[in-house]
Each structure stands twice: as C-alpha cells, then as structure tokens.
Design goal:
Helix content is 4%, strand content 42%. It has a 4-stranded antiparallel β-sheet, with no helix packed on it.
C-alpha cells in the first residue's frame, strides 16, 4: 500500500493547534501507520512570535517534553503508534507541514 500524505494547514487568525495524540492508537482497526515523517514548509519562521511548535511528550514522566520549531526544511521522524505529540497554538502567521505516513502490511 502506498504511504498516506497530508498537508497540514494551521491558519494564523484562529490560533490553530492540535491536541496531544498518537497517529495510530493501540488496537485501532484499519490504521496501519508505522512511521510518521513531518516536513516543515515555513520559510523564515520565528517561533517566539508565531508559536506553532511540535511538542513531543516522552514515555517517561520524569523526562522533559521536547518542543520542535516548525522551521522550513526541517524533518521530524517518529513512530506513529508510540510518540504522543501535539501542535502548539499558532498566531500571526499561517503554519504548513507536510506529513507522510509509512504503513506496514
């Protein structure tokens, strides 16, 4: 099966965000996502002004969260069924990310 692709558009005028989630939940039927690739398309992004960080939540409650700035050309790769993540609110500029999911058979 070919990988699934999505263009994520977060409009700046709405404070768009995405709540913490997995790209494949345990026991979810029909979802075969295994690896998530995020490619950011935001040229000259200023995360201090516009937000829109990808926040990665660790498995271990003692480990710190990791915030990744959505800078154009940056690629983030993680396991779809184990990495809890969210998109922090975006304000002042539209945010774009291309997501590619590689699926298992």
């Amino acid at each position: 099966m070919p990988p699934a692709v999505q263009l994520g558009f977060y409009p700046s005028d709405t404070g768009a965000k995405y709540s913490p989630h997995l790209d494949r939940n345990p026991g979810e039927v029909g979802n075969r996502r295994e690896i998530t690739f995020l490619i950011y398309l935001n040229i000259d992004w200023d995360a201090k002004r516009w937000g829109g960080h990808l926040r990665l939540h660790p498995d271990d409650d003692k480990a710190p969260r990791v915030d990744v700035e959505p800078i154009g050309g940056r690629i983030v790769v993680f396991r779809s069924g184990t990495q809890v993540h969210e998109v922090m609110p975006c304000k002042g500029r539209d945010r774009l990310a291309l997501t590619l999911w590689c699926e298992y058979e």
